[in-house]
Every structure is written in C-alpha cells, then in structure tokens.
C-alpha cells in the first residue's frame, strides 16, 4: 500500500507527458498552416504572380497549393497510420515531426518567382505536398496518444487538447503575422518578412522532438502487442471512416472558413486592410480557443453527441446573420469583432469533443489509421479546399454570401451524422 501514492504520481506524470508530447507537434503543424493562410496574399504575389496574372488568379493558385497539401494528408494518414498501428505510436510520431519541421523550414528558404520564374510555384507545391504527408500522420498518432493514456472519464478533455493546440497554433501564426505587418513596411513584409514564421518552425520543431523522444508507448498499444487479437474487419473500418467524415465535415468547413480563410475574404471581398483582417482572425481564434476545453470537459459529462450537434446546429442558424453583419458598412468594429469571436466560439463546440469521438469509433489495432483517415479526408475536402472553393465561387457568381452557404450546408449534414452517435460512447472503455 505504501507504494500507491508514488505509483499514482508516476501515472499522473505519464498522462501529462503524453498530453505535452502529443500536442506539441500538432501546435507546430497548425502554426505553419495558419501562417500560410494568413500570408496567402503575400505568398500569391511572391510565388504565383507574373505580368500576365491577376491578383485573383494568383490567390486562387495559392489556395490550390494550399488544398494540394490537404489532399496529401490522407496518403500520409494511410501510410503513417499503418506504421503506427504496427510498430507503435511513439516512433511514428517522431518520424512525422521530423518531416513536418524540415518541410516547413524549407518554405522560408525557397526562391520566389522573381528569382527562378515558373519553378517557384512548383517548388512551393512540392514542399507543401511533403507537409501534407507529415500532417496526415500527425493527427491520428497525437489523438491516439492522448486518448489511450487518458482516464476513461477524461477522454473528451484530453482529446480536446489536440484541438486546443490547433487554436494556439493558429493564434500564434496570426499574432506573429500581425506583429510583422505592424513593425515592417509593406515592402519589407513582401520581400523577406513573410519568411520569418516558417523559419521559426526549426527551433519549435527541435523542442517538440526533444519532448517526443521522452514519450512512452501507450498502454493500449503495449497491451495489444502482448495479446492475440482478431484481424481488423476492413469493411467495418471503411464504414466508420465514412461516418466519421460526415460527423467532421461541418467542423472542417466552418473551422477553416472562419479561422483561416477569413483574412483573405475580408481583404479581397470586403476591402479590409491586412491589419484589420488579422485582428478579426485573432478574435475568431480566441473564441475558438476559449470554448474547446470546456466543450471537451462537458462532453465527458453529458456525451459527445449533444455538445457537437449543438455546435453544428448553431453554425447553420448563425452563418448568414454573422456574415451579413461583417458585410454591413454601418456596423461598428466592436460588433464585427463580436461576430467573428462568436463564430470561433461555436466551432470550438465541435472541435473540443471531436478527437475523443473519433478515437471511440475505432479499435486500438486500427485507431491510428482509422481516425487519421477520417480526419484527413474530411479536412482535404472541406478544409483544404475551403479557400479555393469560396474564392472561385465568389469570382464566378459575384455572391459575397458564399462563405455562409458553404458552412451552413456542411454543418447541416454533420448534424444528421452526429445524431447517429450513441449516448453512452463517452462512458465505454476504448476497444482493443
């Protein structure tokens, strides 16, 4: 009995270490993806602009490169997920972190269109593809680490840290972009200032690597290695992946529309300045960050279904009023700031319980692959393509309400899919 307190303390430390190691790589990933989104107009001018290319066409090409990285995510999820389900979560997460850090740093070193001409966008697209592969392998492993170490009654809260570091990464990217836009001249920002966020990924990645090297393998995977288990039923896994996509698509679409695409939308469509757009994005991401952990905690009490379905339904109801408020020239800056803050807050209701919900859909022997594919496929279609779809449709239709239509339709589908969740999933042990 005398060793019980020490054993309990050791267990708490292992849980905390799993949270830190699981989230730190995710932070680096979303910091970079956020930085790319926030500097989309600058990147467009540096990598996709020529004398024969309009600003709108350059921005569309930039978002096409942005989307391409997302379409490499499912490949990364399948490849690294299989490795993670075979040899373990820890070594796989170390590998994907190294790939993400190297590819992100390379963006800050790439020559621009003015230097190497047409080769510039191809080089950028290649590096984005490498990032997509690593990002696809990151989510499944990070969520598996956090939820498999978590006490049964705290999976929602532990999993919510994955989404919370998304918010922290996006906020850090937005904050750094706002600082650079304030302290640097427009010429300096366009010339070299935009490179700074990507080069900072190197020291961040090294810190993340040190933390992950100290990580232990999860108890679920260790137990799986020492016991006989039946083969994964591929049809069941495929069905769960498809259902997971439906449950996530609203989160994916609304999250990227409100949190990442918004700066370019406000600048290109509503004629906001770069600084105004970034302030709006910081407020949206602040609302997002504020609601994630409480939503995860609440889902441990009342279930994933009511919390996530409420978030998706609120997006459907609020999408057009919020968008119309942003478009109204008579609306005060305070009202517009409140609108984007509320938008982020509502998305957090889906993002908080989402990781735990996914982890509970798959057995340990297929969890890394299954939840990684569900998440990456949803993000490839509904997040990565959000900027491209919205920008192209606004260009073609001249309808500035396109973002509201996009998030309302996707969240309506998610409401239906989320209602199929069992009410007691949050109380059950994770399946082996």
Please describe the structure with a list of short key phrases separated by commas or semicolons:
single chain, 432 residues, mainly alpha, Growth Hormone, Chain: A, 20 helices, 81% helix, globular
Q: Which architecture per CATH?
A: Up-down Bundle
Instruction: Note the total helix count.
Output: 20
Order of helices and strands: HHHHHHHHHHHHHHHHHHHH
- Strand fraction: under 5%
Shape: globular
Which residues sit in consecutive blocks of at least 5 with pLDDT less than 50? none
User: Gyration radius, to the nearest Å?
Assistant: 21 Å
Separation, N- and C-terminal Cα atoms: 30 Å
CATH class: Mainly Alpha
Q: CATH H level: which superfamily?
A: MFS general substrate transporter like domains
Q: Can you give a write-up of this model?
A:
The protein has 432 residues and is mainly α. It has helices at 4-38, 40-47, 55-71, 73-86, 89-107, 113-116, 119-149, 155-183, 186-191, 196-199, 201-213, 219-225, 234-268, 274-302, 304-327, 333-351, 354-359, 364-382, 386-397, 402-418. The protein has one domain (11-213, 220-427): Up-down Bundle (Growth Hormone, Chain: A). The longest helix is centred in the first third of the chain and has 35 residues, at 4-38. It is built from 20 helices and no strands.
Q: Which secondary structure elements does this structure contain, and how are they paired or packed?
A:
Layout: H1 4-38, H2 40-47, H3 55-71, H4 73-86, H5 89-107, H6 113-116, H7 119-149, H8 155-183, H9 186-191, H10 196-199, H11 201-213, H12 219-225, H13 234-268, H14 274-302, H15 304-327, H16 333-351, H17 354-359, H18 364-382, H19 386-397, H20 402-418
């Amino acid at each position: 009995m005398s060793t019980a307190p020490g054993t309990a303390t050791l267990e708490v430390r292992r849980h905390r270490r799993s949270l830190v190691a699981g989230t730190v790589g995710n932070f680096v990933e979303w910091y970079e993806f956020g930085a790319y989104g926030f500097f989309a107009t600058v990147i467009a001018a540096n990598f996709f602009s020529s004398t024969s290319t309009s600003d709108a066409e350059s921005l569309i090409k930039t978002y096409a490169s942005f989307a391409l990285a997302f379409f490499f995510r499912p490949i990364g999820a399948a490849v690294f997920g299989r490795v993670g389900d075979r040899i373990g979560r820890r070594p796989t997460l170390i590998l994907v972190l190294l790939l993400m850090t190297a590819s992100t740093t390379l963006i800050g070193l790439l020559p621009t269109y003015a230097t190497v001409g047409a080769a510039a966008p191809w080089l950028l697209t290649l590096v984005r593809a490498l990032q997509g592969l690593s990002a696809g392998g990151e989510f499944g492993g990070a969520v598996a680490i956090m939820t498999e170490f978590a006490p049964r009654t705290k999976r929602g809260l532990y999993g919510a840290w994955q989404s919370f570091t998304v918010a922290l990464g996006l906020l850090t990217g937005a904050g750094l972009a706002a600082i650079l836009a304030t302290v640097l001249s427009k010429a300096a920002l366009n010339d070299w200032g935009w490179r700074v966020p990507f080069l900072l990924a190197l020291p961040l990645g090294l810190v993340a690597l040190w933390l992950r090297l100290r990580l232990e393998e999860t108890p679920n995977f260790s137990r799986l290695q020492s016991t006989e288990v039946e083969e994964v039923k591929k049809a069941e896994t495929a069905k769960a992946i498809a259902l997971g996509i439906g449950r996530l698509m609203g989160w994916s679409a609304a999250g990227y529309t409100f949190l990442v695409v918004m700066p370019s939308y406000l600048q290109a469509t509503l004629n906001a300045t770069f600084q105004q757009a970034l302030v709006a994005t910081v407020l949206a991401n602040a609302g997002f960050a504020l609601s994630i952990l409480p939503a995860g905690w609440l889902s441990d009490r009342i279930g994933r279904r009511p919390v996530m379905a409420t978030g998706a339904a609120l997006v459907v109801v609020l999408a057009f009023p919020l968008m119309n408020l942003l478009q109204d020239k008579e609306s005060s800056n305070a009202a517009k700031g409140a609108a984007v803050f509320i938008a982020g807050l509502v998305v957090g209701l889906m993002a908080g319980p989402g990781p735990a919900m996914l982890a509970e859909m798959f057995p340990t022997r297929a969890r890394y692959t299954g939840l990684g594919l569900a998440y990456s496929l949803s993000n490839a279609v509904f997040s990565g393509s959000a900027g491209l779809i919205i920008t192209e449709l606004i260009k073609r239709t001249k309808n500035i309400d396109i973002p509201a239509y996009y998030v309302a339709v996707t969240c309506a589908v998610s409401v239906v899919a989320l209602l199929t969740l069992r009410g007691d999933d949050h109380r059950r042990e994770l399946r082996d």
